[in-house]
Each structure stands twice: as structure tokens, then as C-alpha cells.
Amino acid sequence: MEYVQDGVTTLHDFGAASPAVPTDRAAVVVPMTEREYRASAAERVLTTLETLGVERVVVPLRASPSVAESIRTWLSASDVPVEVLWCDGPRLGSLLGEAGLNGTRGKGRDVWLALGVASSSEHVVVHDADARGYDERHVRKLLYPLVHGHEFSKAYYARVEDDRLYGRLFRLFYRPLVEALADGEGATPSVLEYLDAFRYALAGEFALTGSLARRMRVQRGWGLEVGTLGEAFRLVGADGSAQVDLGVHQHDHRSVSGATGLSDMSEQVGRALFQALEENGAVPDYDGLEARYRDAARRLVTTYTVNHEDDLHRVWEVERPFELHLDGITVTGRADVILDHEGGVPTALAIVDYKTATSGETADHALQLQIYADAGRREGMDVRGAYVHDLSAAARQPVDVEPAAVQGAETTVAEAAERIRARDYRPNPSQQLCRRCEVRTICGSAVR
Ligand code: SF4
Is the CB of 445 under 6 A from ligand 1? Predict the structure, then answer.
């Protein structure tokens, strides 16, 4: 039951939501390389797309001449219309060369080429072919904001596998770099706030209108994701953007070094971030940025290795779903992490909810954790603590889950449900709430 809005409209994962959207007016771009050829994850993606009734699938293919035709044959056997764009093909290369556009090869170049083809559709969804937990709701959820007034939507999800956190490039490079830039005096907050609002800015899954795809400039290499955010901000701003929770994803993992390793990727992501800032009018303070970045990264890492070292040995469960049944009301949600050994007692549990930033305000999140604690106790769990963990500030705030506080949370939920039943939708404006509300442009009560 995560409901907090960030700097852009944020659609949380409410379990099995599979919204009705016009998939028949959508092109799905699935970049592939040779390594996806007949891979089980890619097979699953294609099979799933067959059931979705999408208008077409566009596959920008990076492959050597020896296998390109075999891959085309494999893709053509699908029951969904597939258009293959051989990005390494000699004809495409010479056409781009003649136009002076045949720049560096990479995923960004492939997606840029595919967007040109796919943008004649009303909507375009872009996602990778290696997500092992892929299901048909991903396309539906990404499309949903587009049929409700937004022009751009981006996925976010947890990268948890074998009890380990992944998404290293985002957590250890992008987040502290954005924080370090915010510490400088030159960066204009609005574009930084926008980039900071995305819970997984490096996710490769996004959707956009065909019209936006035609206007968007796309970076050639691993700067694709951040560059796309910068362009979305330039063209449609925060009001036209949304992010959508896709649950938990398991992708292939990359090594740190090597041509496609995280080190090489980080250079391109960093360049793309600076470019996105500068092109949107910000003047980043580069003096001392390296030192500020190291400080921010050290603060985040130290928090885990020193302040929360125990957590590494205390993980009891991750992404744990909860259901709280009150009188005529069912509240559902999913806790990020549950730790055992709370207070040194092996069977005692603590629920931790991670936030990219809380602006120092934990009250908004307390209700959520109190409801999880309540639901857990009704299941027989020995929940003795709950915490909001602000990843940006590297700080952890306790939430009161004593019986009186939990009872108060139940009353709050029951009263809210009663007001909804009575169709009592009295506004409750505040500067903080209205600033992030998706209906503020048409709401007569908004604090502007
Ligand atoms: S008062 Fe209007 S704009 Fe403000 S939070 Fe409520 S609905 Fe949104």
C-alpha cells in the first residue's frame, strides 16, 4: 500500500492490476543482440506479446552477418507482426553514412532507429528482451498513463535476486552523483528534481506517444535511459511524465570491467546526465564535483557497512505482500524488507521500507508501515519494529507500531473508506501535496 507521489505521477503496484489499454494501437520496441537468439527470456517475451494483441513488434537487431538471417527467421515465426531492423546491416549503414548520421554503435543507436519506425503508431513501448519475470501486464501498465493524459511513462522496479540487491550502477553511481550535483550551487533544481524523482532512472522500460517519439533526440550508447529522461523533461515536463511500478525484475548482470561492463557504462551515464542538465538550462557546478560525489557515495555505502551491517545477516523476507482485512475493507501492500533479530531477539521482526527521498517527512509513510505491522501480527508474526529508510539522506527513522498507534492507523483507514463510500471527496490541499498532485491543473482547490 505505497501511495506516496514523487516529483512525477507515480503509479504503484497494486498486486495483479492489468489495466485495459488499447494495445492494438501500440508498437513494442524490443532491442536484441545475438545473445538473445533463442534465449528463454526472449522466447517468453515473444510468446507473451503474441497474447497481448499489440499492433506490431519492432526489433532493432545488433548481430553479425553470419547469424542475422537466422535470427530474422526465428523472429518471423512469431504470431505477432515483427519488423526486424538489422542495425549492423550494410544497407542501413550506407544510408546513415550518406546522411552523416552513422555514429557510434550501441543500444541507444538501435533504439533511436527503431523509434523512427515505431513512431507512426499512436503509442510506443520500449523494453528489453532479457527480463526473466516478464509478463503481459508490463506493457499494459506502461501504456496506462499514456491513455490518461501523459506522454511519457517510465518503469521502476526492485532488482532483488538470491537475497541480494542489484541495480549497482543506479545505487552506487547515479544516485550519489545526482546527490552531489544537488549539493553544488549551480544546478537548477527543477531538472535535477525531475531526474531525482524517478525511482529507477536507469530502467530500460518506458513508453511514449508516437508524437513524442518523433520529436525525441536519443543518445547513442548507454546514456540512452538518462538522455531519454532529459528529453522527456525538455519536451513534456513533469506534468506530462509518469512512472509505473513493475514489481521485481531479474535481468542479466554485468561485470564491472570490460567493453560492456559497469565501468564503461558509468562514463556514458555520467556524460548523459551532465548533458541532460545542461540542455535543460542547468549550470552544474563541476568544481569539486568529484569530491562531493565521493562523499555522497561513501555516505551511502557507510550507512550499510557500518550503521546497518547487521541488516546483511538479518534479511528474513523481501517484497513481502500483506493483506489487512478490516470491517468491509481490504488493504493490500508489499513491504520492501523484513528483518529478523529485532532488538536481539531471533524471532522478532522489523519491517523496513526504503524510499529514494522523504524530504525529512516520515509521517506520510508511517501509516503504511503501521498497516503492514497490523497485517503481519494478524498472520502471527512477531513484529516489534518498523522503519522508513531514506536512501538519499542515508538515514533510518523508526515508526511507532505500538498497539495504540496501530489502532489509530486502523481508524484512519476505516474513516477514509467511510468517506469514499459516502462519496465525500472534500479536498485537503497543502503546498506539498498539491505540488505533486496529478490533477492540480484542473483542481479548483489546489494551492498554487
Ligand atoms: S487539493 Fe486538489 S490539487 Fe491539491 S492534492 Fe487535493 S486534489 Fe490534488
Answer: yes
Residue 223: closest CA among 275, 261, 260, 155:
275
- Name residue 194's amino acid: Y
Rounded to two decimals, the pTM is 0.69
- pLDDT of 222-281, one tens digit each? 889 999 999 999 999 999 999 998 877 766 666 666 666 777 788 888 999 999 999 998
Residue 433, ligand 1, Cβ within 6 A: yes
**CA 446 to ligand 1 center in whole angstroms:** 5
Name the nearest CA neighbour of 104 among 119, 88, 90, 116: 88
Task: Check: CB of residue 371 under 8 Å from CB of residue 362.
Answer: no
List C-alpha distances in Å: 209 to 140, 197, 219, 239: 14, 21, 18, 15
- What are 123-157's pLDDT values in tens digits? 999 999 887 778 888 999 999 999 999 999 999 88
Q: How far is CA 189 from CA 289, 389, 432, in A?
A: 16, 23, 16
Is the distance from the beta carbon of residue 439 to the nearest atom of ligand 1 less than 6 Å? yes
Element (H, E) at 62: strand 56-62
Q: Indicate whether residue 435 lines ligand 1 (CB < 6 A).
A: no
pLDDT digits (tens, 9 = 90+) for 279-337: 998 888 888 888 998 888 888 777 666 666 666 677 788 778 888 888 888 888 888 78
